[in-house]
Here is the input.
Amino acid sequence: MTPGRPRISLIIPAFNEEKYLPRLLDSVEAARSRWEGPREEIEVIVADNASTDGTAALASARGCRVIRVEKRAIAASRNGGARASAGEIVAFVDADMSIHPETFKGIAEILSSPKWIAGATGVWPERWSIGIAATFAGMMPLLWLTRFDTGVVFMRRSDFDAVGGYDERLLYAEDVVILWRLRQLGRRRKARLIRARHLKAVVSMRKFDKFGDWHYLGFIWKASGLLMSAKKRQAFADEYWYKPER
Here is the structure.
């Protein structure tokens, strides 16, 4: 490791997240306190994706480095944060999550082994219902098969650069595509994706609160986009991600 360089850069894409960001940053501080090296080895960057609320001021006051990203695309926000970061490992987490206290220690340990190309922690929902439980149960076979998961997604910077980062042409599913590319890269060196389930983050259920606890069954069909025109895909993305009431 280069002296003075961060070991891990945690990148948080954020659009109008002043409600949820404090909870996430509290959990980041708890995880930082478990890190055995200097505090400066954990870099926290908030990629402010053209927010109109107090997200940037809040993040700055909490000691985060704030990067303004004007292009309204989640992929662009992730990439903007990554470009501004300096860590040997880059990790990404959404603003409405809270991370496990052992996150940074666990990520560093995992990526110290060449058998892993990248990984994701997975998530626990902040609340349960029959609909939410059915949604998670329905997703499990796909997660087992692909090892594509959510939560804190992490990889070496060199591998992030090798796959070209997140695809900014995509309005959604950019997180799935980058894991697919990393898996392909890993096959060349016999390295795999890991689901670091012992490091699960807690995720808000705000989408379920807004659209209903059973909404995801229809959402999966819509999100595939196979039968949607470009205009309909844009409308769907706006409704679900880009024009939320927050």
Q: What stands out?
A: The first strand starts at residue 8 and ends at 14. DSSP finds ten helices and ten strands in the chain.
